[in-house]
Amino acid sequence: MAVADQKESGVDIDRLEADFKADPGNFVPLAKAYLERNLPLQAIQVCRQGLKHNPNAPKGLLALGMAYYQAFDDANAESTLRKVLKHSPDAAVAHRALGEIFLERGQEQKAMAELARALEIEPADPHTRQLLQALGEKVPNLPGENGRPRDAWPVRTTPLVQEPARSIWPTVGQVLAVAAVMALVIVWYRHHVDIRMQIRQYQEKAAAAIPTDNYDRLLEAEKQLQAAYALDGEEVRTVVKLATVQSYLWTDHAREDRRQNVARLAAWMEEEQLPNPERFSTQALLQIFDGKAEAAEKFLTGVIEQAINTKDIFLDASVFGTRALARLRQGMLKEAREDYSRAARFSSDTPHYQVYFADTYLREGNLGRALRYFKDALRSNPAHVLGNLRLAYAIIQSGKQLPRARKIIEEYLDSQRHPDSEFSPPLNGLRYLVRGELALVNKDVPAANEWARKSLEAFDSSAEAHGLAGRLAALNKDAATANAEFSRAIELDPYQPKIYFDRAESMFALGDTSGAIEKLRQFEQHMKPTVAYHVKLGQLYMRLDDLQSAMNEFQQAVKVDELSPDARFHVALCYKAQGEKLGSDKKNKGQKLALYNQARQWFEETLMLPGGERGEVYREMGRIYLDSEDPDNALDSLGKAAMMMQKAGEPGSKIAAVFEDVARVFKYLGGTEGEKQEKIYLMKAKGLREGKTLEEVEKEAQEQAKREAKKKRRRRRGRRRR
What we know:
By secondary structure, the chain is mainly α.
């Protein structure tokens, strides 16, 4: 449908068709719109479909009757309109249409009766008045201007007036002229319909590709929409969808050449004053990339308020998603996350905004929630490239379920399963970055360096890739390169918390401990302090043995989010460290016990919070019990820790540390059995640290126990023989 058609009718027929497709019972507005465009056959088809759900609906029957009437199917029109009048005797338009049908048949008395009744019900209807005046009836004047009838339906002809007989030849000439005009109209109409059908087909193909949100499918959607745009550059649905797709290609996939097209489409939408949400989101997007994020946020906030208050414009995912980006560019992480959540609810058929919602948690350092929401996002499209790669990145940062991350990476680096055409420069850079992070976790620094180089070669504007390069330079004791890489990373994205954390860790490792804390505090210049920020500061202070400063930071983390298990866990950890610092001197026993009790209380509160029941919490509680000479509770807590870590897919080194603690408990218990169990758990811990799986070390422990049992039996036999 051309934009001009939409303006003339005041109705968006594409929207009505979509509404009808979603709910076939909602067909009357669409039928009426078809009749206003003189498309009675389409109206009849729609009415028949709709009436299957409610065959006696008065408004539906009226729509069908008026469709027959406009199609000059007088027999069906009369029978249908009579059904309408049985249910709704005051339907003026039904009386008027019947009157006109009778008039064309020459049944003037019947026509006058129906028209008079129509005028009585709706005295302001100009067409009814005109028909009655043509029959010689006096029609009373109306005071003031005639208003529009309450239920206006389009008419099909002008009133038929009796004229004196005249020569047939002028009539023949008129018929031939009309026939010629009609032939031209039919040719034009067929051409018009053919174009509309082609446009619709292109739009449908694009609509099937867009929700997948993958680079190659977005290019395919763009191709289809450009073909539709070439046929009609003012078709609203084509314009807004093309603007959306090219916005994705520009902002998410670094196709800078699309920016000019987006600006042109945005200007057209603004000139036409479209109520479509894409008009506003595209305009704001251009502001954001012009460095005006705050102005874009204010603009979209005003649009949202107007939509809520006046309801004269529509809202969709793009409005909230673009405002989220504007807020992200201002360091408003929490507010951005809320908007991405709203956008995700508007677009449940695509993982686009769900992935960005999850990514705000990854940015913040809340890895538990990031993992959860990335997995949720992938339910709508398990093959979503960005979602899978970000999930792998989050898994590697968490240090858990690393085999799953490896599986994802191997899949997306397999050129047979995923050719290079599937990846834009940012996606290419991301898959190499994630591979480099995995290599670093596995302590393969040369491989990590190579993958980091490839990542930056594919997409040099990745702040995360420069951050990885900075960490690797720090490992190589190259402070100058590390500083340059981290500076470049912050220049690219000053609102990425992980870069500040990694820079501080690298400086700390290079020996610049005071500089590390000073640089980390620059975080507050760009973003509001988060739980992860205060926790990272506290961890650095703990490593400097400044436990009071560490406790202050951990308490601040609790104030930021009282329901954060990570914040409470670190408060407990700090109390435990304060207790351990007192040593084993008996005169400090009471103070140490009080600090341990405080730590236990905070650990228990952590366990009660959503996401707080973790293996590391039970491990720290077990260590407190062991230091408090409570071996039974120590074994219970450490057993839970090992079980939960195994279930969570923690790396073997962490489970090994728990087994070493268990060995300490058995050493404390002493005796033959204590010594035996101590050896078994130390053997298990050693195997895990060597890279063996838990199943392998358990099997080795069982075999070792069997060998020990055989030795005992041999010794017993030997003693008996003597």
